[in-house]
Amino acid sequence: MTAVMANRNFRRLWTGSAVSMFGSEVAELAVPLLAIGVLAATPGELGTLRTAQFLPFLLATLPLGLLVDRRRRLPLMVGADLGRFALILVIPLAVWAGVAGIELLYAVMFLAGVLTVLYQVADFALVPELVAPDQLVDANGKLAAAQSANEIGARGFGGLLVQAASAPVAMLVNALTYLVSALALHGIDVVEAARPASSRPSWAELTAGLREALRNRFVRALLGEATTFNFFNEAFVLGLMLFAVRDVGLGPVQIGLVFTAGGVGSFLGAWFGSRATGRFGYGRVLLITLILGNTAPVLVALAGPDPVATMALLCSVFVVMGVGIGIANVHAVTLRQAALPERLRGRVNAAYRLISWGAIPLGASLGGLLAATTSARTAMVAGACGMVLATLWVAFSPVRRLTSIDEAARLSHVRSAAPRPRPGGST
């Protein structure tokens, strides 16, 4: 057992996160398949559904980031899990009662998305309080590996569950995982750092995280990369789902296997990525893995109508893509945590997600529009080509020259402590 996994509190956080991520990965496959198969959603409606699911990252991140910086993070996470359990449970019950409609799905996924924002912002800020500073890379690697392992098992399981039982049953499983996660988190015993006294939030407080994210040269580069990737990846995935189901004729199990292949690659990258960093340096490894992960999807342009050949191609692309993204994500999260002051972590992470995850509903709208006006294949290929551009943010930034996380933290803190020049003079 590694040092970080010997930490009881971190084990409980890891367990809760792993279980809830399992349910979320099942839902990633079950929700669109439920919309397409049960509710007969059009490409435009599928795009609107994805927009509703991720719109909270545009609307709620700044105020929730401030809330996280003013409150104990753990109770917020437990409450978010319990709320998501209750909301997601509505979906299978509504289908079985014969009252489900696409509008209900919009509303439930939007509200669950708000709670997901709260959970993720609080989780990012809580991890550094549970582990020692020198364990952050390992802790984030273990959390990312759990995510990747869930992509391996959960999406394949989700495909089997949808095909063997139904999409509503898969959503029921998703709801129950949030309940299990809440119980695991409830057992964490930690004395969180004191938070500032509550007062009416000012505009300056709400936007402090946004200003810091844009000011910090390392975070700014990662933010640009993540935003560009998320925007085009959403169009890519939406087009891929429609192309695979309606043009190629792949079933839930086959689609689940494609995403499982991506999870295999991501797991390998997340689990073993820190070894590459020690040998080749932080910035160099991050840039190479971004090139790998962001460029591989372009190969989907070779996909044709043959199901076997398309399956082989998609699985290969997703493995390579997963390896690159798995390594890059661990390093990006750790850099953001190390380069930011504790008092602003919640708000900066909220601002980060406001912009980067806020691009997802916009990408979903683009993907739905392209699929509706041209073809699902066009949306898929256009999204894949756009993802290549994301790497440029890091390629032309100081991040690529970093040798270690410690160097990034030192340079960020020195820059933060430096006096700012006054208008009309120098310091």
Automatic annotation (TrEMBL):
Membrane-topology descriptor: Multi-pass membrane protein
A GO term for molecular function: transmembrane transporter activity
UniProt KW DNA damage keyword: no
Pfam family, one: MFS_1
Location in or out of the cell: Cell membrane
InterPro entries, sorted: MFS, MFS_dom, MFS_trans_sf
Assigned keywords, A-Z: Cell membrane, Membrane, Transmembrane, Transmembrane helix
Entry-linked CDD domains: MFS_MefA_like
Superkingdom per UniProt: Bacteria
Any single GO CC term annotated in Swiss-Prot or TrEMBL for this entry: plasma membrane
Chain ranges passing through the membrane: 21-41, 53-70, 82-99, 221-245, 251-273, 285-303, 309-330, 351-372, 378-396
Domain Major facilitator superfamily (MFS) profile: 219-427
Record protein name field: MFS transporter
